[in-house]
Write a structure and sequence with these properties.
single chain, alpha/beta, Rossmann fold, N-(1-d-carboxylethyl)-l-norvaline Dehydrogenase, domain 2, 2 domains, 12 helices, 12 strands, binds nicotinamide-adenine-dinucleotide, binds ketopantoate
Length: 306
């Protein structure tokens, strides 16, 4: 049987990590780039490079722009949460009826917005615990082993193409409870990332702010329960402490965004959580204050605060 084509939108860290592993396994992949200028730069580079365990491998994956006429049956959306809706809108007319769209975005909010745009497609939400960064344009470093939890909000059965991921060595687990996973990751990120930015520290240094972390976790548990996400609240504090310990030497993704003067995904993390709490009539004074402090911090640095 002929393998069906993977379109990967966004040649950033995770998009490149997925595209290179799929292509390396001999699976057909097309990269979708923003415009002709990016396509020209990509072609001049001669493909995507993956660095893994000190080995560099270049893969000449065919690329196209958003307005290419080729129909799309399976799309991996690998841009940031704040770009997802606009990117998918610009490509929606290319999706065939029943197309599958995998959404790799962190946080919550962007996935639901994209799914609402595409009632004719099957949207699959992915929560990735893998780590990757770009060391240069069109070159990605695989920096952290993890897995990709996937599922859809309608709790339909796993698709047959998961076998492509087996062939490509992309770790994954299908789950009927993807929303629980996404809420849990959201809570972990809200407990850790903003504090690392405000204290200007590595994850492990939050051990010196244990009272602040504990109070935040207590409030997060209340908010999750009031928002109808009790599963995501179970053992949250213990897991936050475990992650802080296990990633003690690392800087959180939000810390790195701020240091590298990139826009953060605050609206899809703390922003989403504070709005969800308010919608459920739940007071969340610590989370709201943290969000305000973070916004002030970003503004003071001249960075976008949305
Ligand atoms: P990134 O910034 O490295 O890559 C995003 C890419 O999307 C960029 O190359 C950008 O130019 C491209 N893009 C944006 N809009 C586009 C458009 N309209 N058309 C074409 N391309 C477009 O981001 P990333 O680190 O790969 O993160 C993607 C998502 O995955 C984020 O939500 C992030 O939080 C999440 N995530 C990342 C990691 C990681 O280790 N990098 C791990 C887990 C989750
Ligand atoms: O996912 C993370 C991040 O930095 O974004 C961890 C390591 C869990 C910290 O919140």
């Amino acid at each position: 049987m002929k393998a069906s084509l993977w379109h990967v939108l966004g040649a950033g860290s995770l998009g490149s990590l997925w595209a290179t592993r799929l292509a390396r396994a001999g699976l057909p992949v097309r990269l979708i780039l923003r415009n002709e200028a990016r396509l020209k730069a990509y072609n001049a580079k001669g493909g995507l490079t993956l660095s893994e365990q000190g080995q560099r491998q270049s893969l000449d994956i065919p690329a196209q722009t958003l307005d290419d006429p080729q129909p799309i049956a399976r799309l991996l959306v690998a841009c940031k949460a704040y770009d997802a809706e606009r990117a998918v809108t610009s490509i929606a007319s290319r999706l065939v009826p029943g197309a599958e769209v995998l959404l790799l975005q962190n946080g919550l909010g962007s996935q639901q917005a994209v799914a609402a745009l595409l009632p004719q497609a099957r949207c699959i939400f992915v929560s990735s615990t893998e780590g990757a960064f770009r060391d240069e344009d069109f070159s990605v470093v695989f920096a952290g082993q993890g897995t990709n939890w996937m599922g859809d909000a309608q709790q339909r059965p796993a698709p047959a193409w998961l076998y492509d991921l087996v062939l490509a060595g992309i770790p994954h687990q299908w789950t009927a409870d993807i929303l629980d996973r996404l809420w849990r990751k959201l809570a972990l990120n809200c407990a850790i990332n903003p504090l690392t930015v405000l204290h200007g520290c590595r994850n492990g240094e939050l051990q010196a702010h244990a009272d602040e972390v504990t109070a935040l976790c207590d409030e997060l548990v209340t908010v999750l329960e009031r928002c109808g996400q009790p599963q995501a609240a179970v053992g949250l504090h213990e897991e936050v402490n475990r992650v802080i310990e296990a990633t003690a030497a690392n800087y959180s993704s939000m810390y790195q965004d701020v240091v590298q003067r990139r826009r953060t995904e605050i609206s899809y993390l703390l922003g989403y959580l504070c709005i969800a709490a308010a919608r459920h009539g739940c007071q969340a004074p610590l989370l709201n204050r943290l969000r305000e402090q973070l916004i002030e911090h970003l503004k003071a640095k001249g960075l976008p605060s949305d």
